[in-house]
Amino acid sequence: MSFRDIVLDMDYTNTGILVSALNEGNILAFEYIYKTYYKSLLNYASRILKDVEASKDAVQQAYYRLWENRSMLTITISPQAYLYRAVYNNCINSITRKDIIRKYEEEQLKELYFSTIILQKRRCCWNVRRLKRL
Q1: Who's near 22: CB < 8 A, 6+ residues apart?
Q2: What average pLDDT does range 96-100 have in this prediction?
Q3: What's the chain's average pLDDT?
């Protein structure tokens, strides 16, 4: 019996049955959700992030949280809507993290640049003082 036959026997096309099976820890329900939505979620994340690896991370994190929190989840709309929202939030978090890192790097570069200029000015002043003493 193939995966497809087992899934068809459970009628996961009914959202209520699918969510209940997921809440109970049914791995087949999770696999069905994964195989059904993965490609479209990855495409969605890629359009937001414009980075394939970051998109894969955002989607993988959404599925990870879905499985980890399966017993506590109350999905009222559909697993698809839940996952799209989770992927969107992960993408926004990724963009925010990248912005924070970029700003930090810019500050560090500015600090390095200005500290280099200050050191050069000090050296110049020291050299001028030395020349005046001679």
Answers
A1: 29, 30, 33, 66, 70, 73, 79
A2: 78
A3: 81
